[in-house]
Amino acid sequence: MKFSILFVIFIIFQLFTTFNSFTINSYYYETNLNAIGKVYRCRTTNFPTSSGIFVTKITGQHESEKNNNDVEAIGIDGNYTLSFVPRNFSFFFPFLRAMTIWYSSIEILYGDEFDEFDYFDYISIQHSYLKTISSRLFESSPQMVHVWFANNMIERVGYDLFTPLDISLLEFVGFGNNACINQDITDGNQTAITSLINELQQNCPFDDNFSILTSTSSLSTPTDDNLTCPNRGIINIVCDLKDSLIEIQENLSTKDERVDSFSILLGENLTEADEKTNEKLSKSNGKIDELKTKLRQLNEKLQVKHEKIVTLKSEFEERLMRLEEVLLNSATNCFILKFTLLVCFVLILKFL
Ligand SMILES: *[C@@H]1O[C@H](CO)[C@@H](O)[C@H](O)[C@H]1NC(C)=O
Ligand SMILES: *[C@@H]1O[C@H](CO)[C@@H](O)[C@H](O)[C@H]1NC(C)=O
Ligand SMILES: *[C@@H]1O[C@H](CO)[C@@H](O)[C@H](O)[C@H]1NC(C)=O
Ligand SMILES: *[C@@H]1O[C@H](CO)[C@@H](O)[C@H](O)[C@H]1NC(C)=O
Ligand SMILES: *[C@@H]1O[C@H](CO)[C@@H](O)[C@H](O)[C@H]1NC(C)=O
Ligand SMILES: *[C@@H]1O[C@H](CO)[C@@H](O)[C@H](O)[C@H]1NC(C)=O
Ligand SMILES: *[C@@H]1O[C@H](CO)[C@@H](O)[C@H](O)[C@H]1NC(C)=O
What we know:
Elements: H1 2-16, E1 22-24, E2 26-33, E3 37-44, E4 55-58, E5 71-77, H2 89-92, E6 98-102, E7 108-109, E8 122-126, E9 132-133, E10 146-148, E11 156-158, E12 172-174, E13 184-185, H3 190-203, E14 205-206, H4 231-351
Parallel strand pairs: 1-4, 3-5, 5-6, 6-8, 7-9, 8-10, 9-11, 10-12, 11-14
Antiparallel strand pairs: 2-3, 12-13
Helix pairs in contact: 1-4
Residues 189, 191-192 line the site of one 2-acetamido-2-deoxy-beta-D-glucopyranose (NAG).
């Protein structure tokens, strides 16, 4: 499931690499930004209606004696239609450190949006539809001093968003007026920042260690400036797909939790069953013991009876022998008697 969707995203990316370029119109001026002070800024005057996520042309007149290398900040008005952070600004402004995007329809920051910048330390995305921020967003810019995402719809923030950052450098941290958090810090109070980070991890938890948020920067270079196509539609599809990937991930972790609680339940039932079996076993063991005792008693009785029988038998035999003797004796006696009688008879006959 996961991989098939990733594959579809891959195919769509392959498709729209053909169209991904656009031009923005702009003007340049000096301004003051919180935490970093005076900067020379490029400000867009239109939201580009052409397609693509890679800026390939920036129009507009520099102030005198200024050039692209002086541009440290860019400000974009997304007109509620810009659904991604435009890429390739570093091609034009190699020293860009600050980006402000207001009124965009950006919902997800995938994490690699600012990787192209070497000196990035200021971000402000406000009054947009931002819901999800990847843990990887600041991996390549550990020197952030200004992280401002107030006035969005933030629901989930990667656990490790602040891990690469030096808390002591942070001065402005804004998460006010969002779905899962409402807190702004404007004085660099480290205790307050740490508690804000804890609050994010508790109230906006998002474990994006599994690379569900696929980056868009792996796209190849654009080909044709002139092409217009409903590319934003494609990007929306990509975003939808990513949203459903996040949903799948959430569903998976819910299922994991269910499996966990099920196995805990099952474990309880098992131990319960074990206990019952043990009880039964010990009960039947008791019965077996009882039976054994009875058997032993029976055996003993049998033994006694057997002994008695043996005794009786021998007594009987003895008696029989005696009887035989007696009989024999009496037979002998009888014979003697008979013989005597015979002799007497013979003598009587002779006598007569
Ligand atoms: C802003 O978007 C509206 C439509 O939503 C459009 O009519 C208008 O021209 C856009 N403005 C700019 C500066 O692109
Ligand atoms: C950035 O813009 C320049 C100028 O149009 C272009 O040559 C380059 O290919 C672009 N880079 C990317 C990654 O699109
Ligand atoms: C920093 O923030 C903590 C917690 O919000 C607060 O108790 C403390 O007074 C703050 N310190 C300063 C110097 O404002
Ligand atoms: C994400 O992975 C990193 C490095 O493997 C680890 O330090 C971090 O604790 C993990 N984050 C979460 C939320 O599991
Ligand atoms: C882009 O548009 C310009 C002016 O409309 C035209 O001269 C040029 O040939 C076009 N480029 C391509 C590659 O179609
Ligand atoms: C996530 O779960 C909900 C409710 O269980 C379901 O309606 C939704 O279709 C699931 N989403 C995906 C992408 O599987
Ligand atoms: C645990 O046992 C109870 C009743 O003994 C039963 O209602 C419940 O479904 C069992 N749970 C599992 C996870 O087997």
